[in-house]
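Hey, I'm writing a tutorial for new members on how sequence and structure tokens pair up, and I'd like a real worked example in the thread rather than a made-up one. If someone can provide the structure for the chain below, I'll link this post from the tutorial.
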Amino acid sequence: MTTRKKARPIELPEVSVSDDGEVRHLHLGTPWIQGSMRVDEPFALELEYVQRMMAWLLFVEPASVGKRHAMQLGLGAGAITKFCHKKLRLCATAIELNPQVLAVCRQWFKLPPDGPKLRVVLADAAQEIQNPMWLGTVDALAVDLYDHDAAAPVLDSPDFYADCRALLSEDGSMTVNLFGRSSSYEKSLQSMASAFGEDALWAFKPTREGNTVVLAQRTPTRPKRAELLARAEAIQARWELPAPKWLRVFKPVA
């Protein structure tokens, strides 16, 4: 059963779906694509930047993945939550403000119903992540919070990222979708550094579309390249993610 929390009294955009026959897209009142799903492979990760949001897998032993807890802030088309639930087979939680988004994900994007290892909380992410029940419980936090204009992250302050850090387990990581070619990118990076420390940050180069995924570790580490490559190859073999290619464009920020 979906849990509902009190949300801020704001106007929520209309949710719509477009479909080209092979790929289905989610929109929030504009032509901007807020999430995508390949119709024939509903639990695969279609978008390149969403695949990169799984970079936290490089910092954990593959054998431990199924015992972990992933949380997604901003459900979008549900790609990350579905992948974590169906492919990684771990406990997955999503926090989403807009009930329309949840309804569309269930109807059009194959989001499974809530169960013992999957739950969607309808809530304001900024408030919900301060709930003591979540503190220290999240191993992989995915932050992809954009409004209908997709201009800049909705939640992006040092205090917000400090709250995100408090959610993480000792070896947990946060991945954030940013626009690397936007003027807000450096500000976002500074906000994350103030909460996590510069030595905790890793970043990809921008995708062709300009999305830059930044990863922040609760406990900074610097694995040797050979260790990262071995994990990347295991990730590709087990979950069909292009992790070895990530290492060409994924580096520590500091």
